[in-house]
Write a structure and sequence with these properties.
It is a single chain. The chain has 244 residues and is of the alpha/beta class. The model has no long low-confidence stretch (mean pLDDT 95). It has a seven-stranded parallel sheet, with helices on both faces. The chain contains nine helices and seven strands. The chain has a single domain (10-88, 111-142, 163-225), classed as Rossmann fold (3-Layer(aba) Sandwich), CATH 3.40.50.720. The longest helix has 22 residues, at 95-116. Helices cover 43% and strands 17% of the residues. It has helices spanning 19-30, 42-48, 62-71, 95-116, 142-162, 180-187, 192-201, 211-222, 240-243; strands at 10-14, 34-39, 53-56, 75-80, 120-129, 168-174, 233-236. It is globular, with a radius of gyration of 17 Å. The protein binds NADP nicotinamide-adenine-dinucleotide phosphate.
Length: 244
Amino acid sequence: MTGTELTGKRLLVTGAGSGIGRVAARLFQARGAEVLLAGRRLDALRETLPGAVCVALDHADEAAVRAFAQTCPPLDGLFLAAGELSTGSVEASPVAVFDAMIAANLRGPWLLAHHLGPLLKPGASVVLVGSNIGLRAIPDSAAYSVAKAGVHMLAKVLALEWAPRHIRCNAIAPGPVHTPMVAARLAGSADPAEDLARLAGVNPLGRMGTEAEVAALAAHLLSDESAWTTGTVIPLDGGADAVY
Ligand SMILES: NC(=O)c1ccc[n+]([C@@H]2O[C@H](COP(=O)([O-])OP(=O)(O)OC[C@H]3O[C@@H](n4cnc5c(N)ncnc54)[C@H](OP(=O)(O)O)[C@@H]3O)[C@@H](O)[C@H]2O)c1
């Protein structure tokens, strides 16, 4: 076997039109999974995997998630990568930013778990994407950090609730990964080169992560190789979690 085997598994990937979700969807398919792609931009999803089933879905819209659940076939797993980043301190952030961060990062996974949970087969695995700044506080990404901390707890709660059905749930907490999300953040910076160097230098391995590294861990967690792993939040951050 050359990599984690996902043959025969039907997996839903959110945020599949960009960044980590896109790379993960491609990896899961290459490892044998049937992948359903969800995201807001259908054209981007079609670019990820031509020919795959694509679903236009704002995961924070309960009516849309409920309607999707009514047509969705039984699933062997979810990789919930959709999310949005906003910076700013508690005092500097308008409350609308807090609401938007909770909607994009926490309400979405909650709604998907609530409505798609009944469709998960025994043996299924769910992987949420949190963040290392949901584990360790830094100033200036307050609403995002708080939402991601909620994602980590959601993974643990779901692991307990679903264990009797032999369904697992874990979260990955990545450090900085060079995706369109980070590129957009850098584009808004006064000194993008300095910010990029700072992001790369915040961990002992001295570089940013790659989308492929997050996807590989997700593939392991979705596969039967990790059948005894549930309720965990795994930092994937070049060692940053060991330092703070
Ligand atoms: N990159 C990092 O450094 C980093 C670090 C830690 C955690 N993360 C997390 O990793 C995940 C993937 O991020 P990324 O860096 O790959 O970012 P990305 O390239 O910006 O991709 C994010 C995706 O989420 C989708 N999305 C956002 N809000 C949505 C909503 N309400 N409904 C449905 N889809 C929505 C976007 O869809 P559209 O394109 O259609 O808008 C996009 O495809 C996110 O949860 C992020 O918070 C990233």
